[in-house]
TrEMBL record:
<dbReference type="InterPro" id="IPR002347">
    <property type="entry name" value="SDR_fam"/>
</dbReference>
<dbReference type="Pfam" id="PF13561">
    <property type="entry name" value="adh_short_C2"/>
</dbReference>
<protein>
    <submittedName>
        <fullName>3-oxoacyl-[acyl-carrier-protein] reductase FabG</fullName>
        <ecNumber>1.1.1.100</ecNumber>
    </submittedName>
</protein>
<dbReference type="InterPro" id="IPR050259">
    <property type="entry name" value="SDR"/>
</dbReference>
<keyword id="KW-0560">Oxidoreductase</keyword>
<dbReference type="InterPro" id="IPR036291">
    <property type="entry name" value="NAD(P)-bd_dom_sf"/>
</dbReference>
<comment type="similarity">
    <text>Belongs to the short-chain dehydrogenases/reductases (SDR) family.</text>
</comment>
<dbReference type="GO" id="GO:0004316">
    <property type="term" value="F:3-oxoacyl-[acyl-carrier-protein] reductase (NADPH) activity"/>
</dbReference>
Amino acid sequence: MDLGINGKTALVGGASKGLGYGCALALVREGVNVVIVARGADALEAARERLLRERSRSGSFVTAVAADITTPQGRDAVFAAHRDYDIVVTNAGGPPPGDFRDWDRQAWLSAVEANMLTPIELIKVTVDGMAERGFGRIVNITSSSVKAPIDILGLSNGARSGLTGFVAGVARSSIAARGVTINNLLPGAFATDRLTSSLAASAAKAGQGVDALRAAREAAIPAKRFGNAEEFGAICAFLCSVQAAYVTGQNVLADGGAYPGTY
């Protein structure tokens, strides 16, 4: 299927590895110009080189911006590299797990800044230009915890739910009639560095082996496996496509069937 986005330009956050990289990979394979951003310069440059080899269109560009997009200075660097984006994929690392009794005000402010306010700032800067040009796709990578909250991820539950509520309103505003869609993509358990470190920490706390814990986690998922970044990226690319023009304001859950609810 031709997704109809060849020649468009995308901004992808957290794209040096994991799910952000998977999204950038899917987009460059569709002929999209991509600006990738992450804090680690070396890992980001390595990702840029891999993405260049995956381009379906030799004239497309891949630009790397090593910056913290959760800061005003980081966002300034992103828009200095390229101003007008047709596609924006917001993605920032989730806040740490823990007991809500241990989190002070600063912990909450940091979570809200990274996982709610930063995506809102990126939407605010880009959405009107998209509407003027008659095409725009914004995909926010959030978490399956928006649908099924996880007790030790209270910071993420709260901040990402705030973003979800905001998107539910703005996606249905006047921009919906001007070719702009905003959707949230909710990952469940995907084989990323974050999941690996989480499994290691959980195994150590429980006094059991990582392999046994991994097997138990996979067995609890109806698909009997963890997801991978490439298939996640493919879902993201579809939401950015011309075929997905009638999909907006939605929370798209990719979790191998782990969420047990009907709605």
